[in-house]
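Re: adenine structure - here you go.
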Amino acid sequence: MHIDILTLFPEMFESPLSHSIVKRAIERKKLSIEFIDFREFTKDKHKQVDDYPFGGAPGMVIKPEPLFEAVDFLKEKRKYLLGSDEFPLIYLTPQGESYTQQIAEELSHKKYLAILCGHYKDVDYRVREHLVTREISIGNYVLSGGELPAMIIIDSLARLQEGVLSNMESAYSDSFQDNTLDGPYYTRPREYRGYKVPEVLLSGNHKLIEEWQKSKRKKLQKR
Ligand code: ADE
């Protein structure tokens, strides 16, 4: 899977992409990521990409030009990856649909995605109307930009790529599978500060253990 990230702050991604599972997904060539600093696409002589909102409101709005130009560039560059005429551009905004494991599953099967990280107040609405194909929120709170949400989405997609997790780490027993939340896990020692591991887990009785584990998975409730 290839993901292009449109951002004004590509450096923010350096550390999250260089560790653990995401790093592994990239090393194993299951995931590739490129950054498009859309400031490079403005013809403004001061390289300014934002401006005051018409009608007056606090905050700045990202101008349409650098984003339309950047998307034109990507449409051409990624032609070989696009299955149809549609250019899949996800905009990260608190106004979008709530991100869930189900959406992660769905996106993880795509060969190509572009993600737009907004900043400041918003992007010009014409970008949302005419370029963006899906709007996603990672939760009901406001962050300063879409970079952290993009990292969350990348992480959730990296671990779902085939050949990234080992059997032991398999995504299949994770929370949200079959509409349940994962149960508790224990490891050595059997007793720590007087706190004991449940007897059944030490019993060696696989049938009982499986029943116990199943009973501990909670039915997913709307929260
Ligand atoms: N940008 C700012 N806040 C956000 C949120 N909660 N989800 C996605 N993108 C955002």
